[in-house]
Amino acid sequence: HIKQNFSTLKKSYKKEKKVGMKATWSDSDSDSDPEETKETANLCFMAMQESDEVKSKPKEEIELTINEMYDAILELHNDLLDITKRHKELKKKLVILSKENNILKIENEKLMAQNVNLKKESQESSLVDILKKENNDLRRMNCDLHKNFLISLKLVRNHKNSCQAKDVCFIKRT
Question: Is residue 19 within 8 Å of residue 48, measured between CB atoms?
């Protein structure tokens, strides 16, 4: 009979061993009569599974000479040297740009602090401007009041003088 190894149904993480043909012989002499010397052979065949590595062949075979392979390796080596050189240059540039970035961050923080101070000064300056305007308005009002007071004082004096001339006075002194 045939026994198959169903590797597609089992997940095995161990390396599979190749299965070979196994044959067994049974000792039928002990069961049979000594007169019967008929021999029977019991064979067991097992299916063999080949790995994918053996089955797979490249679709295109590229044949290179030793000189062509040597040239290809030299070209790859030169590319590697160029890339390594460029990598070192970029690393140096990264260090320089990183330092410049840190300097600019510090300068930015200083400018932000200056900006906050200037905003405070601007607010204070606008308050000072408002106070100056109010002060000027109050001075004008004071001047207007003083003028009105002088005018009213003149009116009172004129009225007083006119009252003394007529001997009638309507203004009471307190």
Answer: yes
